[in-house]
Amino acid sequence: MIIFAFSIVMAGINTEEKESLGRSPEKISGYLAISPLFVFLAVYVLTSILAHDFYKVPITAAFIVSSAYALAITKGLNLDGRISIFSSGAGDKNVLLMIWIFVLAGAFAATAKDIGSIDATVNFALRFLPGKLVFAGIFLASCFISMAIGTSVGTIVALVPVACGIAAETGVDTAFMTAIVVGGAFFGDNLSFISDTTIAATKSQGCSMSDKFKANAAIAIPAALIVTGIYVFQGLSVDFVPAANPIDWIKLIPYILVIVLALIGMNVIGVLAIGIAANFIVGVATGSAGWVAFLSSAGGGISGMGELIIVTLLAGGMLELIRYNGGIEFIISGLTRKIHGQRGAECCIAALVSLANICTANNTIAIITTGGIARNISERFGIDPRKSASILDTFSCMIQGILPYGAQMLMASGLAGVSGVAIISSLYYPFALGIIAMLSILFRFPRNIS
User: Fold this and answer.
1) Residues 6+ apart with CB under 8 A from 439
2) How far is CA 238 from each of CA 134, 160, 175, 207, 267, rounded to the nearest angstrom?
3) Region 416-433: what's the mean pLDDT?
4) Which of 53, 85, 215, 295 is the most buried (most CB within 10 A)?
5) Is the pLDDT of residue 384 over 90?
């Protein structure tokens, strides 16, 4: 039954508000109610497999087809009524809140890049890179940068060329050096306050970012420490002196400000709004961006979130049609029939998001498509929202980190000129993260939320 939840989205739906829409007087079978999920899988996954490319079929197109099918099989309403239900799901306040956050996150990330904050962050990390501990240093630099900028892809783009240069100078295997960067990139993807996976996980489960950060830190930090220890041991025989590029300290301010404000618990909308304002002030003060250039950069960042926004809307509407037809109740009943405790429920959530990630090759989309069912399972079995959000984010990042057809691996292999399989064979962090996350479910830690 796990596969049935691949396309379920949208957490925290206000069911009392939705009850006014009623239930279809012509009930359809449970399997027919959830059949839009199979249509989505057939269009997206099977077509991608046949095309030998998981990026050949846009996920938005797959959702359009499955949403149209969901409209077609709904009974008891005319077309206007069906569209009204679909629109109520797409326009749910929680879905819209997530979209506003995506818009601001895109604007912040793009403006920060264009004013030079990413370059400043990279230079800052490399300045303190220890010569004898080159492997551990690159890993920690990747962790720091990904934590600051909130994107694994951005970290890979920034650091893989540096890592390849170090590999060329030291004679170290290029795939191994690239794997160090990729592993560290997922540390920040999993923990950063401005990561889209964090935004999706916390909003879908109804918990604050600071609380989810504390829950995730208990899993991600031990994994990072273990991997750092491995890199320290492996790097003792290598000696490297990194280039001392100048650090533009003022350009670090936006990232530091965002991290500090998020840590003290400020609302994410406020955090990102202040971060964007800080980017503008720093850009003007340093001559890196004028008003027109800043607006152009912000617009480009927002446009870059377009597919994610459209997927969120389509998936939200399709979920509401599935709920209206009784599919949600059918799925929950099937998934939880043999679960007898929180361990089983948490393992079920982990399996859901992992399988969704394998099929979509996108950890954010995987969280969005399983967030609603995960929240329902959590409420039924008394799982703390902080724990369910942590499970969603951690397992999605772990799976994404080892997918040879994932965007991060394709980007890293392209920049380094090595195969994704060679990089995966040298990865440590995603596997360590997955092991500790599984142990946290089995042995119930962190204690305060288990």
Assistant:
1) 445
2) 7, 19, 16, 44, 45
3) 89
4) 215
5) yes
Task: Give the model confidence (pLDDT) of 425-442 as tens digits.
Answer: 889 999 999 999 999 999
Residues, the chain, total? 450
Place of tokens 């109520």: 88
Q: Write down the H helix ranges in 305-406.
A: 306-324, 327-336, 342-360, 363-381, 385-401
DSSP state, 450? -
Amino acid at 352: L
Q: Is the dihedral of CA 390, 212, 441, 319 positive or negative?
A: negative
Question: What residues contact 371, with CB distance under 8 A and at least 6 apart?
Answer: 8, 9, 10, 11, 200, 201, 203, 204, 205, 392
Note the pLDDT of residue 14: 39
Q: Which amino acid is at 324?
A: Y
Which residues are within 8 A (CB) of 50 and not within 5 positions of it... i.e. 6 or more apart?
A: none
In the block, tokens 């964090």 appear at 198
Give all strands (DSSP E) within 179-276, no chain letters.
none
* Nearest-angstrom CA–CA distance, 218 and 443: 13
CA distance 191 to 209: 9
